[in-house]
Amino acid sequence: MSEDLRADRPDDLPDDVTALIDQTTHEETADFPVERGYVWTACASVENGNPLYWDASAAAEITGGPIAPPSMLSTWFRPHHWAPGQDEPKLPLQVHFDLKKRLNLPEAIIAEFTTVFHEPVRPGDVLTTCQRLRSVSPVKRTKLGRGRFWTIDVEYRNVRGELCGVESYTGFGYNRESSEAAA
Amino acid sequence: MKPQLTLDQIAAGDALPVLRYPVSATTVVLGALATRDWRPMHHDHEFAVTRNGVRDIFLNTPNQAAWFERYLTDWTGPHGRPGRMRFRMRDSVFPGDEMVITGTVTAVAVDQAGCGWAEVELDLAVGRESKTGCSARVAVPVSPDDNPWARRGERWRP
Lengths: 183, 158
Known about the structure:
The complex is a heterodimer of chains A (about 180) and B (about 160).
Chain A: E1 3-4, H1 15-20, E2 24-29, H2 36-45, H3 51-54, H4 56-63, H5 94-102, E3 107-117, E4 128-136, E5 140-141, E6 146-157, E7 163-175, H6 179-182
Chain B: E1 19-22, H1 25-34, H2 45-52, H3 61-76, E2 81-89, E3 98-110, E4 116-126, E5 129-139
Antiparallel strand pairs in B: 1-3, 2-5, 3-4, 4-5
């Protein structure tokens, strides 16, 4: 799918980007607590009738009380579309956008992502998050263009410091190439 | 409440029941808002066509994750506890598409902590085209008295 261009072009990943790898960045606390109204909206959007989310007695018996669907982990961190005093909209997965800018790669896609679920998230929890750049590939050429793959982990914890989940995103930032150049 | 499904009832090669769902503009917009995704390509037809170069607004990825999660736990019942999901996005799903979600068990195992796991390959397709793939690992009770949700710390290894 991709061609490693190291052989014909030395890798020139900037030192400041190399220094970012495995560093904890963008530590944040969620803007609002986990709440059941959003859980029901999310379940309604996919017609999820799992009694854990609708039946208090089932939730009490199986999960020790209400929880949010594990797949909602990142929902609790998507910024408000608007907030008082907010000049520019905040971006989720900020490291991804920082890399695009720093490496001058204006286009980017998320090629795949993995989520690992740990401690269940419960209504009332105020989660914290941080991001870690795990790797940046040498320059590669794909059918989209010429650029680099990177992997970013996003970690989520509850107020007790318990790990609730980790998302790993693989992005590809690139410059479009003309069909002649890409051939 | 007894588990709907226990590990002894599952074997590699098992096919999960197929889920078919007609996607409408409401499905797309509701899914985007439910995941707090305000980006216009998930609610603004003109933006999606002129800026993204696609034919219509399309399902966002977090909402597709929720569809896969619902599909998985429809099968396991509420005792099924998702441990890990890996998504591969290939193409978009638009209003007017009939989304078809399928799944096949690829492995069944009990880990060193005694937790039962089913590995399942899921696919979201429209017609013959696979749009999104998902490799899921879900914990399933090993017996009627087991509850994967009771596992914490070293006893939970997703």
